[in-house]
Design a protein that fits this description.
Layout: H1 3-24, H2 29-48
Helix pairs in contact: 1-2
Length: 54
């Protein structure tokens, strides 16, 4: 596991926490969807950059 994959996974999990918080505060749905897409991209990129499959 390298540093960039760790950072991407941590940022993705941080954004997931933001999604939960914004949903509880009943923020606009477009903002929650934007956070969801960005969190998914960060998590997928972090997992794909893991060097487990070498």
């Amino acid at each position: 596991m390298n540093g960039l994959s760790t950072v991407l996974i941590v940022v993705g999990l941080f954004l997931v926490g933001g999604i939960i918080s914004f949903a509880k505060q009943q923020m606009p749905k477009s903002l929650v969807v934007l956070l969801s897409v960005s969190a998914a991209l960060c998590l997928v990129a972090g997992v794909l950059r893991l060097e487990v499959w070498n």
